[in-house]
UniProtKB/TrEMBL annotation:
InterPro entries (UniProt xref): Poly_export, Poly_export_N
Segments forming domain Polysaccharide export protein N-terminal: 45-138
Keywords: Signal
Name of the protein described by the UniProt record: Polysaccharide biosynthesis/export family protein
Length: 260
């Protein structure tokens, strides 16, 4: 009987210790090993470099509006990323876009400001005079990213140039209670392939991470906590219910085998 009680107590302790606590759930906790007030909270992300299949919105303005009609989509057709799929400029497999009059322009690996300068230079060289006073705006069709795992799964588009991972997760519906916030994976595309990065969102130091700001085409993957894989409850009440059920079965089994 003593051995049975020891095993039962150990099993009970494991279940109770597997509860999900605030330390597992609360974002950006000040753990005391850094002065939160000293964090650079408004750090700027690195400029994004355009990749294959990105869609660009390019708009040309000049003193004579009739001269630029050929370059610009019909008003109202480019609102939202869905409209830009048809009226925007898609980067093909060779890194080119097909631009009116100018033909193919290679933009692969360029930043948005660099593309703007390139389009302006080519327009002045091939079509406009300096006196036309042209003005070019270039934007991505939105910041697209994917979420998968213990989070709202799907492909999301935010009409912003700058999005941090907390905003991205909130837009996706937040991480489930059974998701591992301490080791969130960011799968990022680079010219030479994909790389996996890790970030601990329960620590305020995450705001200093180079991966705190997401980039277009990022995949945010949230793994389940180990306790979910074990099938235990998320709260103490759930675990106590589980313990009570198991205890009832074990005690009944013990006395039945003892009386045989």
């Amino acid at each position: 009987m003593n051995r049975f009680l020891v095993i039962l107590l150990l099993f009970t302790g494991v279940l109770l210790s597997s509860c999900i606590t605030n330390r597992d759930l609360v974002y950006l906790q000040d753990k005391g090993d850094i002065n939160a007030e000293d964090l650079i909270l408004n750090q700027l992300p690195d400029l994004y470099r355009v990749q294959v299949n990105d869609i660009l919105s390019i708009n040309v303005k000049a003193l004579d509006e009739e001269l630029v009609d050929i370059f610009n989509p019909i008003e109202g057709t480019s609102s939202g990323s869905g409209g830009l799929y048809f009226s925007g400029f898609t980067v093909d497999m060779h890194g080119n876009i097909e631009f009116p009059i100018l033909g193919k322009l290679n933009v692969l690996g360029y930043t948005i400001p660099e593309i703007k300068d390139k389009v302006e230079r080519e327009l002045l060289k091939q079509y406009f005079k300096e006196t036309a006073e042209i003005f070019v705006t270039v934007k991505l069709s939105g910041l697209k990213y994917t979420t998968i795992g213990e989070i709202g799964t799907g492909v999301h588009v935010l009409q912003q140039d700058r999005v941090n991972i907390i905003e991205a997760i909130a837009n996706a519906g937040d991480i489930n209670e059974t998701g591992d916030r301490k080791d969130v994976l960011i799968i990022r595309q680079y010219p030479d392939g994909q790389q996996i990065h890790h970030i601990n969102l329960t620590d305020i130091k995450a705001m200093q991470s180079p991966y705190y700001f997401i980039k277009p085409n990022d995949i945010i993957l949230v793994k389940p906590l180990k306790r979910k894989a074990l099938g235990v409850g998320q709260t103490a009440i759930q675990n106590i219910t589980t313990i009570s059920s198991i205890l009832s079965v074990l005690v009944s089994t013990y006395f039945l085998t003892k009386n045989l």
